[in-house]
Amino acid sequence: MHVRYSEQTIQLVGDGYSWLQQFPIGKQHVVTTMFDEKGKIVQSYIDICLQHGRDTTGVFWDDLFLDLVLFPSGECLILDADELDNECDQSDAV
């Protein structure tokens, strides 16, 4: 699996790749860190969520609109801000 961000394409899934998901207690985000076959971080994906936890079906999180992508270089992308803007515009119209 490859994902394109602006000018760059990043591989997130492949032979030897692994993902680590973190669900910090009392926080409103979930962090998924992707590692390549050499164990180097490819990216960390932060889902901003209303809540997360575990129930009888497994782990869950109530995803909100904004997501962040943090690269090993320190570069950070804000994703889905347009969806948040659209939701706010629709709420204003009601």
Walk me through what this model shows.
The protein is mainly beta and 94 residues long. The chain has a single domain, classed as Beta Barrel (FomD barrel-like fold). The protein has one helix and seven strands. It has one helix spanning 81-93, and strands spanning 2-5, 8-11, 18-22, 29-35, 41-55, 58-70, 76-79. The strands form two sheets. A five-stranded antiparallel beta sheet has the order 3-4-5-6-7. Strands 1-2 form a two-stranded antiparallel ribbon. This is DUF402 domain-containing protein. It comes from Exiguobacterium antarcticum. Residues 22-89 form the DUF402 domain.
Mean pLDDT: 87
| Proportion of helical residues | 10-25%
Helices and strands: which structural class?
mainly beta
Task: State the CATH class.
Answer: Mainly Beta
Strand residue content: over 45%
Name the CATH superfamily assignment: FomD-like
CATH topology, which one?
FomD barrel-like fold
Biggest pleated-sheet summary: 5 strands, antiparallel
Pfam family, one: DUF402
Protein name: DUF402 domain-containing protein
Domain DUF402: 22-89
InterPro entries: DUF402, FomD-like_sf
Question: How do the strands and helices of this protein lay out in sequence?
Answer:
Blueprint: E1 2-5, E2 8-11, E3 18-22, E4 29-35, E5 41-55, E6 58-70, E7 76-79, H1 81-93
Antiparallel strand pairs: 1-2, 3-4, 4-5, 5-6, 6-7
What's the quick description here?
This is DUF402 domain-containing protein. With about 90 residues, the protein is mainly beta. It is built from 1 helix and 7 strands.
